[in-house]
Design a protein that fits this description.
The chain is an alpha+beta fold. The strands form 7 sheets. The chain has a 7-stranded mixed β-sheet, sandwiched between helices. The protein has a 6-stranded antiparallel β-sheet with strand order 6-5-7-13-8-11, with no helix packed on it.
Length: 872
């Protein structure tokens, strides 16, 4: 088998890519075929003994598209193919020019009805030909500008794969044909003195309907092209992360070469501020690397000899040399780029209801029109009567309402979303969001703020205060570039502290920083001149021979369990304090997670952080499941895993590392404060950085989909009701017949109904389910120092004459955040009871009045579907 790549031209919608895929897959020898509408790229795996590229290209050309073969080694767009930016500009010009001719056409055609001033040569029966021919001339440029709708639509119809373009071609074409027919009848009437015929056909013109349909559709295509352009820019920005050149040691000499010329085994020199071009292993030196472009984690990673490094990492401090292990398409960054492109092409296609309907509706309507025309001729009716009947059927089937059903609802929904801080970049994403059953979330910058802050200070020596510990750490950390340093610096500056001078400053990679203090006294306590000070982890204490007691080890473990990064402060030969720095949970994250659970949506946190920190955040926000220590490709794999388990997954993230998962998910939701690449890889962007807005986005999607289905019903209701009337089925018996003028009126009425229904979305209001979640007081990644059993909701008070008791119930059967929320809700529903469930410990800490029995508590848990195995 052989795999070849092609660029396919002329595709404008999902139906186009589906038609191309279907046509090529029917060829003998084809094993797999995949068409990516985003990049206009087709990948075909086939048997070269039975099929060649010329046959594939000819097959695509036969169905109305173009194709260019690409080199397997250099699968890029050929120069003859327009870029996405050029396509968007062309669509914009097409819409503007169409609008330029539509406006005067509407003025001329509707002016008399609206009592607008018109030139005298348009008035009266004697000027009918001028009046009608002017409309025809104004319609002609719109038809020419939008001719591709006819070529594509009729071609699809010919190949028995009708789509929306087929409806556009049939509907607008019928209106134009009837208009031309009316033009001839008016000319005949003026030439033979039949003024009644002239007056009749002056009222039965539909040129403006045809031009209006085509102009509105061209507007939609322009908006689609613009969205596609912005989406494809994500790939370009990923590529731009890689530096253009690198400094390589060859034959003992440092030379600068293009990144493309790096080979495996090259020794690459990296200095502060530079970005790594490829993956490799450090062979000399040590440094601190910002790997957030790949891992999404804001805290840098200390690297030394023997450690692996990845492309797109940013060097913060220190110079080092590393050996190139992976180059070209094998680097981590290149694989991420490939994952984004692969996910965008393999995403499950959205079921386009209008296209499905058109597949049946168009051929049926055309058959009815033909049958009506022939039947009336056989019945002895005049040719004009038969033609008028046939065109009435086609006009009543004009896809104005059907074409407006989806875009008007989506337009109203996206407009309302913008007001609510939701930027909807993909109509497909908006449509899919209503059936999401699992939400997978990144941690840093999504659930948490993404900016470490100082949480608390603990003092281990009675000689010092909190401010002393902070002052020493500040004096050291203001010389450092570490993000943890920024948290300490901000806290010290808020207290208006000034750093004292530190001499002999030294940063020990992976351990911490140290130096010599020059102050004479600290908090009134005299210090030995040139006292040693330090800030770091236990490795630093070991390096400096500072003893660490068991109590300090316990406090370190407690801080880590609460999701904090602890920093030990050293003065002299003693570890005197601990500073806990953590990434706080965002305001509203807990409520959002609770809302997802109440909506029946399963939640999972995917993070590159360590397991202990991830579990700490899980306990705080109540998320259903957590998977830690993941790389970008792992996050994408998890999205696909949950899809394979029957879930419809959405992914919410903010980093470059989230781009593959965002595009792989059914719906990608990006945090607005995140990277441009994450935003441009997503279908929906939350502009206010709140997870609660993600809940609103899903609720809005449900409302939009309800509206779309209602619109499709009303769009077809009038047409289906009037088609038998237009065909003349009731003419012989009741004398009822729908002429083209009334057919157009019915068509217009259905359009008005659809638009009015869509505008109801402007009244959409988000439903806040979790207004008073009991654990709302947890607003940071590190809870208070109170024991878990003693934590009570702040909004619950108890009467002084009621004695309150505490009990801990062991609950079996809970497996996710939804379960724990259900148990907590059942217990708190009992009057006077305050309960908090710990999913990890499988316990419920309950505070209850003496008027409530333990059996009542157990019964509440049992009724919720779980069992109590112990109480103490």
């Amino acid at each position: 088998m052989q795999t070849r790549y092609f660029t396919v031209t002329g595709m404008s919608c999902a139906a186009c890519s589906a038609n191309v895929e279907k046509a090529v897959s029917r060829l003998a020898g084809v094993e797999t075929v995949q068409v990516n509408l985003l990049t206009n790229r087709m990948t075909v795996t086939y048997n070269p003994d039975t099929l060649n590229t010329d046959t594939i290209i000819q097959t695509i050309e036969k169905i109305g598209y173009g194709a260019f073969p690409l080199s397997e080694e250099n699968p890029v767009r050929p120069s003859v193919q327009k870029t996405d930016s050029e396509i968007a500009d062309a669509e914009k010009k097409q819409f503007i020019f169409s609008l330029f001719f539509l406006i005067p056409l509407m003025y001329v055609s509707m002016g008399r009805m609206l009592k607008l001033p018109l030139p005298p040569f348009f008035a009266g029966t004697e000027n009918a030909l001028i009046f009608v021919f002017t409309q025809f001339l104004l319609t002609l440029p719109v038809l020419i500008l939008n001719r591709r709708f006819f070529t594509n639509g009729l071609t699809s119809l010919y190949h028995r794969a009708p789509n929306m373009n087929s409806l556009i071609a049939v509907g607008s074409g019928a209106a134009v044909i009837y208009g031309v027919f009316a033009l001839y009848r008016i000319g005949y009437g003026l030439g033979h003195g039949q003024l009644d015929v002239v007056q009749l056909y002056m009222k039965d013109l539909y040129f403006e309907s045809s031009a209006m349909i085509l102009t509105l559709i061209s507007l939609g295509k322009f908006l689609e092209a613009r969205a596609k352009k912005k989406t494809s820019e994500a790939l370009q920005k990923l590529i731009q992360l890689r530096p253009q050149t690198a400094h390589v040691l060859r034959n003992g000499t440092e030379i600068e070469i293009p990144v493309e010329n790096i080979v495996i085994g090259d020794a690459i020199v990296i200095r502060p501020g530079q970005t790594l071009p490829v993956d490799g292993t450090i062979i000399e030196g040590s440094t601190s690397l910002d790997e957030s472009a790949i891992t999404g984690e804001s805290i840098p990673v200390e690297k030394t000899v023997g450690d692996s490094v990845i492309s797109a990492s940013h060097n913060l401090s220190g110079s080092f040399t590393f050996r190139a292990d992976k180059v070209g398409n094998d680097t981590t960054l290149a694989r991420i780029i490939a994952l984004v492109e692969e996910a965008s092409s393999s995403k499950a296609p959205v079921a386009k209801l209008a296209d499905v309907i058109s597949g049946y509706f168009v051929p049926i309507v055309m058959l009815i029109s033909l049958v009506a025309f022939i039947s009336w001729l056989i019945a002895g009716a005049t040719f004009e009567f038969a033609l008028s009947t046939a065109i009435s059927v086609l006009v009543i089937s004009c896809p104005c309402a059907l074409g407006l059903a989806t875009p008007t609802a989506i337009m109203a929904g996206t407009g309302k979303g913008a007001q609510l801080g939701i930027l909807i970049r993909s109509a497909e994403g908006l449509e899919l969001a209503h059936r999401i059953t699992a939400v997978l979330l990144d941690k840093t910058g999504t659930i948490t703020e993404g900016k470490p802050t100082l949480q608390r200070i603990e003092v281990f020596s009675e000689r010092y205060t909190d401010n002393d510990i902070l002052w020493v750490a500040y004096s050291l950390e203001h010389l450092s570039e570490h993000p943890l340093a920024h948290a300490i610096i901000r806290a010290a500056e808020e207290k208006k502290l000034s750093p004292f001078k530190v001499s002999d400053f030294m940063a020990i990679h992976g351990k911490g920083i140290c130096g010599t203090a020059t102050v004479d006294e600290l908090n009134g306590i005299s210090l030995i001149e040139n006292v040693r000070i330090g800030a770091g982890n236990t490795k630093l204490c070991k390096e400096l021979a500072i003893p660490i007691s068991e109590a300090i080890h316990t406090r370190l473990a407690e801080a880590a369990e609460k999701g904090a990064s602890p920093l030990l402060v050293i003065i002299g030969d003693e570890c005197v304090g601990l500073i806990a720095v953590a990434d706080p949970v965002k305001e509203g994250s807990i409520r959002a997670i609770h809302d997802f659970h109440e909506m029946g949506i399963y939640t999972v946190m995917l993070t590159g952080d360590n397991q202990r920190t991830a579990e700490a955040i899980q306990k705080i926000v109540g998320i259903g499941d957590v998977v830690a220590e993941l790389l970008p490709q792992d996050k994408k794999a998890k999205v696909e895993y949950y899809r394979s388990k029957g879930f419809s997954p959405a992914f919410i993230g903010d980093g470059i590392n989230d781009a593959p998962a965002l595009t792989a998910a059914d719906v990608g939701i990006a945090i607005g404060g995140g990277t441009d690449i994450a935003i441009e890889s997503a279908d929906i962007v939350l502009m206010n950085n709140s997870l609660e807005t993600a809940v609103t986005a899903i609720q809005l999607s449900k409302a939009v989909m309800r509206t779309i289905k209602q619109n499709l019903f009303w769009a077809l209701f009038y047409n289906s009701l009037c088609i038998p009337l237009a065909a003349g089925l009731f003419y012989t018996v009741f004398g009822l017949r729908l002429n083209p003028m009334f057919a157009a009126a019915a068509m217009s009425f259905s359009s008005v109904t659809v638009v009015t229904n869509a505008l109801r979305l402007n009244r959409f209001r988000p439903k806040r389910i979790a207004q008073d979640v009991h654990n709302m007081q947890y607003c940071s990644a590190v809870p208070t120092d109170k024991k878990h059993d003693d934590t009570k909701p702040e909004n619950i008070t108890h009467k002084e004459n009621i004695d309150m008791k505490n009990i801990t119930l062991t609950v079996e059967g809970m497996s996710c955040g939804h379960c724990s929320a259900r148990v907590e809700k059942a217990l708190n529903a009992i009057e006077g009871v305050s309960a908090k469930v710990d999913l990890g410990a499988k316990t419920a800490s309950v505070t209850y009045p003496d008027t409530v029995t333990v059996d009542a508590l157990k019964t509440a848990v049992t009724d919720a579907g779980y069992s109590v195995t112990a109480s103490h």
